[in-house]
Design brief:
102 residues; 7-stranded antiparallel sheet; 1 helix
Length: 102
């Protein structure tokens, strides 16, 4: 069983080949591929976390499509002052499929 922990969008995600996951919006190259930075690699019984060894490891992914996250409503209210504010937010997301860990 081979999997890797990669840094993506300010978070760390556990990925395996063939897995689909949603990340913060990330720009792809002209072919629709991206490279993710590995933090840890597990290949059977061997665990690699050394920076020099991980520099040789590449985790590639194919961009499936761009999405928008669910709407989050932000409301602020102060009692007895007449102050209220309402604001919405939707995150820009990218769905990717992991194609290789080498």
């Amino acid at each position: 069983m081979v999997y890797a922990i990669v840094r993506a969008g300010g978070r760390q995600e556990k990925v395996e080949v063939g897995q689909t996951l949603v990340l913060d919006r990330i720009a792809a190259d002209k072919d629709g591929n991206i490279q993710l930075t590995p933090v840890l690699l597990v290949d059977g019984d061997t665990i690699t976390h050394d920076a020099k060894a991980l520099a040789k490891v590449t985790v590639t992914a194919q961009v499936v499509g761009d999405e928008r996250g669910p709407k989050i409503v932000i409301q602020k209210f102060k009692n007895k002052t007449g102050y209220k504010k309402r604001q919405g937010f939707r995150a820009d997301l990218t769905r990717v499929k992991i194609t290789g860990i080498k």
